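Ops channel
N.P.: pipeline sanity check, posting one input/output pair.
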């Protein structure tokens, strides 16, 4: 039941008025308690005091001559709300529990439909990464999982390519590192076997050459590792024309002369040390393969700084122009001209260009004779 307090100030003289006011607001006065004695009101809807709810004590505004004290008024609503019925409360509780159980069952079913294929995908992915990277996860019919499986298969594609490159790189690196060591070991064993018949100065020179080659391979491998990590580079405003000219002047004279075609200043945002390393690699390669001359030119073309290194050698066939940028790849002509090369100079040069948001390619050149033209393109400063 909903109990309401009736804020009425009543006295013996106003009992009838209090009863009338209570009936007007839908309440029934059950009894009055005054001076410790209970006196029932003239109402047909009386109830025992024990069934009454909270009581509201109102002191009389004027103490009557009889000396009676405060009057207690107990009031109860005449209409019972729905939640005061035990049957309705039980019915509402039952319906609520049933609805909750149905909702839980439906959620459990839908969750199982999603988690079961996800668990299968997880097991399939774990098996592929542990055994065979050439396999792919079957695409499920579930629309929410189709995109996720597509992304995982794309990641497996990249992982397979990277793993194959790592295996090939490791195999080539181990081979090129073993070759100098094997040569050094052979020369030292022969010298120790016949110490009196050995030209020790020449043996020492051969061993030193092998050590130098091994050191060059290790240095290039470290450079590749730093560039592969994609770490930050120290960019600064640089005049590519002046940088190229300074490198050409500092370069010792070699078998093949180098001609330059350097025009006006071409400014780029680059790491001077890395660009110098790139230029050195291109010049070494050009002088190794040129017949009579190497030409270096710096220009600005369509918002890019362009550096060209041209040699008049035998040229590179179009189908092999990308292959020379692979690690430890050396064409037969390169092996014949420089047996001590590492096969890492051009791959390092391309990585340096890409680290500067540029490109390094081999392009055709307008010349009646076969030539090789390496072209470096870098964004102009502020472009």
């Amino acid at each position: 039941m909903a109990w309401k307090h009736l804020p009425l100030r009543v006295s013996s003289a106003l009992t009838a008025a209090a009863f009338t006011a209570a009936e007007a607001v839908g309440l029934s006065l059950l009894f009055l308690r005054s001076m410790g004695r209970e006196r029932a009101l003239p109402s047909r809807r009386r109830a025992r005091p024990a069934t009454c709810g909270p009581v509201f004590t109102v002191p009389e505004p004027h103490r009557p001559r009889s000396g009676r004290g405060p009057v207690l008024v107990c009031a109860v609503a005449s209409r019972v709300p729905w939640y005061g019925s035990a049957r309705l409360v039980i019915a509402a509780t039952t319906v609520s529990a049933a609805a909750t159980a149905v909702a839980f069952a439906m959620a459990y079913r839908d969750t199982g439909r999603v988690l079961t294929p996800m668990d299968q995908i997880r097991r399939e992915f774990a098996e592929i990464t542990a055994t065979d990277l050439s396999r792919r996860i079957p695409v499920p019919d579930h629309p929410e999982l189709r995109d996720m499986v597509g992304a995982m298969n794309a990641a497996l594609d990249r992982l397979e390519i990277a793993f194959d490159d790592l295996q090939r790189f490791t195999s080539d690196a181990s081979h090129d590192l073993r070759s100098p060591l094997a040569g050094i070991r052979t020369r030292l064993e022969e010298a120790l076997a016949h110490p009196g018949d050995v030209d020790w100065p020449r043996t020492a020179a051969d061993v030193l050459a092998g050590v130098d080659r091994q050191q060059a391979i290790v240095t290039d491998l470290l450079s590749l590792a730093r560039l592969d990590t994609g770490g930050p580079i120290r960019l600064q405003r640089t005049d590519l024309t002046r940088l190229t000219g300074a490198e050409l002047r500092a370069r010792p004279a070699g078998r093949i002369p180098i001609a330059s075609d350097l025009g006006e200043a071409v400014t780029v945002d680059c790491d001077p040390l890395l660009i110098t390393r790139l230029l050195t690699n291109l010049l070494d390669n050009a002088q190794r393969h040129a017949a009579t001359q190497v030409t270096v030119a710096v220009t600005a073309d369509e918002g890019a700084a362009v550096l060209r290194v041209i040699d008049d050698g035998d040229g590179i066939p179009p189908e092999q122009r990308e292959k020379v940028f692979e690690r430890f790849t050396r064409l037969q002509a390169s092996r014949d001209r420089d047996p001590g090369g590492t096969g890492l100079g051009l791959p390092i040069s391309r990585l340096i260009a890409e680290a500067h948001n540029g490109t390094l390619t081999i392009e055709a050149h307008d010349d009646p004779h076969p030539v090789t033209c390496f072209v470096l393109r870098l964004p102009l400063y502020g472009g």
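N.P.: looks fine end to end. The CA atoms of residues 4 and 103 lie 39 Å apart.
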